[in-house]
Amino acid sequence: MENFEAINKHGSVFLTNLYEPEDNKLLLEVKNSTMSDFEVDVQIGDKQLSGCKEITKDETGTFFTITFNDYVSYHVINESYANSDPKDEYISGDYGTFCIFQTSSYMDFILNETFANDIYPTELKHYGLFAANHVVHIISMHEPKIELKNH
Fold first, then answer.
1. Would you say which domain of life the source belongs to (predicted)?
2. Does the pLDDT at position 95 exceed 80?
3. What digits encode the pLDDT tens for the residues 8-27?
4. Range 51-76 average pLDDT
5. Strands 134-140 and 55-57
6. Residue-level pLDDT at 35
7. 74 partner at 20 to 30 Å CA-CA among 9, 67, 88, 117?
């Protein structure tokens, strides 16, 4: 898959847009992160953390679009509440930014709740985007197109 390694080489990315440009087509826009040069102190409850640097999305550099044609399902979770299942197994991109699952509880759910596997037996794959602000799970029968874009 073109640009699979490129999107995974960044330590942190932000999901900046997710929409359906046409029926059954899903487009995700992913921007790299940037770290502030300035250190600040952050108060969390009764503890103060010093030397923290803010991580924000890079609005000036290159970014990625990930396009799925004919997806079956997608699920978006606020990253603060995302929970990983220890039984999930990865084909590639293990705990990276963008990964492909070998087995997952989300795939099990989709196979149980839809008849997609009856139409496309053994063709469905589970892809995951793990961004700093969201986790997105996508079930699709086609490999996505990952494009590197410039502002």
1. Bacteria
2. no
3. 887 789 999 999 999 999 99
4. 91
5. unpaired
6. 85
7. 9
For residue 79, the 8-state DSSP code is G
Please state, in angstroms and rounded to a whole number, the distance separating the CA atoms of residues 41 and 61: 28
Q: Name 11's Cβ contacts closer than 8 Å, sequence gap at least 6.
A: 33
DSSP string, the chain: -TTHHHHHTSS-EEEEEEEEEETTEEEEEEEEEEE-SS-EEEEETTEEEEEE--EEE-SSS-EEEEEEESEEEEEEEEGGG----TT-EEEESTTSSEEEEEE-HHHHHHHHH-SHHHHSTTT-EEEEEE-SSEEEEEEESSPPEEEEE--
pLDDT above 90 for 55:
no
Do the Cβ atoms of 139 and 125 come closer than 8 Å?
Answer: yes
The pTM assigned to this predicted structure is 0.87
114: Cβ–Cβ under 8 A, 6 or more apart, which residues?
A: 72, 73
